[in-house]
């Protein structure tokens, strides 16, 4: 994992043909350079996306979620073993939409992180507070609880990425950017909590755009970004990648 790490979370926004077409454009237009690029399409699109980026070993794949068991009677769920079989290196775990819309608790997230690690996948563990929690001054407490619970049973040497995504800054349609000053104290807190683990990159997520990525992704701030809305077009995603790479090269 080389910084900057730019991960595209396409959520449920693209069908299989659209995912493959966007992946192909990215594969054709992404200049070779420093850093890691990760594409996270809807899981059924993984074979088509994998084919679209074949030959670009610098573009890696991630799933958006997985179950905490390898096999079993879990209708509709995707096993971490299948995620690995699909060619994914990464899996997003504990995204706020999973926590809020699918009721995933810290304990469920912890079990998924452990299952992903046991499978040899690198979890991209998402943490972040709601607008309400932030208003009440609880940001640090919430993020600490989410992080310590999720990583409790993960060996310190297991590779892992953490993504700090304050829910109040996630776009849900219209961008809602945070400022560097607002997120820096939480980054410090996360960095302190991760001190005893082997190098764990911390990404920022929430309305990252080509013209604000340099606020967050710098060698003395976040190691990369998890990008939703702005990863859905080749222009904005590659604009983010280019800016982040330039900032990191300085
Ligand atoms: P956004 O989404 O970039 O559209 O705010 C980020 C995320 O939810 O991971």
UniProtKB/TrEMBL annotation:
Gene3D superfamilies: Aldolase class I (3.20.20.70). It is an enzyme of class 5 (isomerase). One of its GO terms (cellular component) is cytosol. Pfam families: TIM. CDD domains: TIM (cd00311). It catalyses: D-glyceraldehyde 3-phosphate = dihydroxyacetone phosphate. The keyword Cytoplasm applies. One of its GO terms (molecular function) is triose-phosphate isomerase activity. Transmembrane segments: none annotated. PROSITE patterns: TIM_2. One of its GO terms (biological process) is glycolytic process. Its EC number is 5.3.1.1. It is found in: Cytoplasm. Keywords: Cytoplasm, Gluconeogenesis, Glycolysis, Isomerase. Homodimer. Belongs to the triosephosphate isomerase family. PANTHER family: TRIOSEPHOSPHATE ISOMERASE. This is Triosephosphate isomerase. It comes from Candidatus Uhrbacteria bacterium CG10_big_fil_rev_8_21_14_0_10_48_11.
């Amino acid at each position: 994992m080389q910084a900057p790490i730019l991960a595209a979370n396409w959520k449920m926004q693209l069908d299989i043909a659209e995912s493959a077409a966007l992946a192909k454009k990215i594969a054709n237009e992404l200049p070779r350079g420093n850093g890691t690029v990760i594409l996270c399409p809807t899981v059924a699109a993984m074979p088509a996306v994998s084919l679209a980026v074949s030959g670009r070993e610098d573009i890696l794949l991630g799933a958006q979620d997985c179950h905490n068991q390898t096999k079993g009677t879990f209708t509709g769920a995707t096993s971490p073993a299948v995620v690995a079989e699909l060619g994914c290196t990464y899996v997003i775990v504990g995204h706020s939409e999973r926590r809020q819309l699918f009721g995933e608790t810290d304990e469920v997230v912890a079990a998924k992180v452990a299952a992903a690690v046991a499978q040899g996948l690198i979890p991209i563990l998402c943490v972040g507070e709601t607008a309400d929690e932030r208003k009440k001054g609880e940001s640090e407490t919430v993020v600490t609880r989410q992080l310590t619970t999720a990583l409790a049973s993960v060996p310190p040497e297991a590779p892992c990425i953490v993504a700090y995504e304050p829910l109040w800054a996630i776009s849900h349609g219209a961008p809602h950017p945070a400022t560097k000053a607002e997120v820096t104290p939480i980054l410090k807190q996360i960095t302190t909590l991760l001190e005893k683990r082997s190098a764990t990159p911390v990404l920022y997520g929430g309305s990252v755009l080509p013209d604000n990525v340099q606020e967050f992704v710098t060698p003395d701030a976040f190691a990369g970004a998890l990008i939703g809305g702005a990863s859905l077009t080749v222009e904005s995603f590659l604009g983010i990648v280019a800016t982040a790479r330039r900032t990191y090269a300085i």
